[in-house]
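User: I'll paste a sequence; please echo it back and then give the predicted structure.

Assistant: Echoing your sequence first, then the prediction.
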Amino acid sequence: MTERRRSTRLAAALAIAALAGIVIVAIVKFVPVVRPVALDQLVGANVLLVTLDTTRADRVGCYGYPEADTPALDALADDGVLFEHCVTPTGYTLPSHASIMTGFYPPYHGVRLNGGAALADAHMTLAERLTDNGYRSGAFVGAFVLDQRWGLGQGFEHYDDDFEVDQDQRLGLAGVQRPADQVVDAAIDWLEQGDDAPFFAWVHLYDPHTPYQPPEPYRSRFGHGGKSSLYDGEIAFADSQVGRLLEWLDARGVADDTIVVVVGDHGEGLRSHGEEEHGYYVYDYAVRVPFLVRLPDEVLRGVRVEAQVRTIDIMPTVLDLVGLVNTDRIHGESLVGLMAEPHREGPGPAYSESMAVNLQYGWSALYSVRTNEYKFIEAPRAELYDLHDDPGEADNRFTDQRGIADKLRAVLKTIREEIETGAPETEQADLDEDTLSMLAALGYIGGATTARKGENLADPKDKMHLYEAVGYAANALKEEAFEEAVRVLEIVLGDDPAIPQARLQLAAAYGKLGRTGDAKAILDEYLREDPDSIQALIAMAGLLSQEGNDDEVLAICRRALAVDERNIQAYELMAGVYMARNDHGGALPLLRKAVEIQPKLTRNRIDLAASLIGLGQFDEAEQLLDEVVAEHPKFPLVNFNLGLLYEEQGRLAEARKAYEAEAEHHPKLVPARFNLGNLMLRMGDLRGAEEQLRAAMESAPDEPRPYLLLARMHLASGADLAETEALARQGLERAEADDLKVLGYYLLADVYSRQGRQAELEQVLERAQYYRSRIEGAGG
């Protein structure tokens, strides 16, 4: 323990002790935790970690909720250790799991929201520690928000996150999920394949998250009491799947060799304090979660720990239980001694935060410190709650217990200073273009945001109605109801014109409606107020890119890089300009820089390979693409670019196989089907070529190329000229580029020539020549 950390701990301990009226003498002894002898048999034990998403402690049977149907969790409590007061640092799934896996608070590991930064490689995870010590490790997650591209795959040999998220899914992060029985099926399949090595299995069950749609028989059993009851039904269904995992341990005879840890990641509002879901406030319904541990052979049975603990304590506790010493500096502490002596003091105060209200809405962040007795919340109107007398946190005692509030405020200040010290740089998530676009429409663009500071920031307690309205608009955007999103967001900004999330969403909605002038006006105003806003700069560059204003895109991106020289999206947009001009030499250094900054970002490695293909540097391109296929065989465009590479080299059979793989993984991706159809035509497979082109026409009816190529095929094969004419006309109706118009008119000219329609032939040849001269003029 460093001197700085020791002094911080002492300062916090002094403040807490002062609250209770304890007199501390000048000599302070630091007594090491003695590992109970009975736990030595756990060295090398299996570890099953189950995280229950969106699960309040007070809605579980063993925590005293009479309406619960949670026999599996209740049995775990009877057979093991139940922690009465376990606190999570955040109401968001991704950052809460990052804290569970690293033992760090969010200000240090840098993941503050869902969908933003990824957990950096610099952090050592629980999976890495166990895998490095001989464990077989597998993760099975129930929601896309925990997809390994956000960094939680570190250390896992197997990470089951098979979510199909394509451009036609009108879903945001929270909507892409799979039910608990499917997650548990995958986990059991993996467990069944085990060898003699101990296993570490992490199973994440997302079901209690909205929407509350439990399967039968839980829907019928809990459907009578509205949303709150259906929420109980989701917890009951998740409990049944925990039961399946426990039954598997028993059936395979490994229960006595397995440590079972079950913990919630955060809770749910259910209209408490006016919050429907979670992530806004830091009251106990959001940050107090169930936490149960069952040890092999019932070493500790029926233990209830009253002392407060934190989810950041899980990593060091698991390592301690299996006999591994945690030598790294982390914020969490092992709870092994507390489990063996449940009446001793706990690890100390717990920190929680709500950052979305600040980072995305521009209001004051909320920070809290909690002890077993009190919770203090730092806000423009600070709050203090006596948790013994007022567990629902309804009576703010800040004014009449100001002395206690001031001491806890000092503790909170010390904790924040400590946990923000020395944090490594955050990393961007490894997202494909479609997912990045989906998040951009919701305001998650431009990389990490900086916390807004100042004394005049709004208190979130006054802004809940606007927060809910922006959430409603986000759902409208996800459902492509752009007019409705505009209507709501204009009302919101009429009330509070400075909400960053609302402004970015409104600009995105205007852009989707083709109102680019209105979108740019919003972003221009934003940038006049905050010229260094990366989010607004990148959003503006995106709009300009859609309009084809290449020089302006480059200028805006250079502004963004002047603010943040490591901004990946700026490099990507600039490279996109050069690649659209077929200037792969101009794109290459930008893409190399992007890959240098964030080597894990797969989309940039694929773009770099595409640029190398354009420059004829096939060996390096193939090496890059082979690496990506080995890591992410279904990543969008990786097989497509392999197809391009093989086709350029004349390796037609391999090209066909690559295009077929892309079409299989992403059936609505028109370029893959178009190239596959074209390649089949070259290889003489006319039937296959037509099937691919018609599939492309069905997937993207507004794309002209499949119509034109199919018309050309029909001409070459002597097919029905009437259908050929119809296809050519359909392609022309959709074509905007001059070269495609030239092709369409020449196809019609060929049809008319064969049919002897001289007057029409002359007309279409004249049109073809007109567009050809435009191309030649542009080139000159």
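Residues 69 and 236 are 5 Å apart (CA to CA). The longest helix spans residues 226-251.
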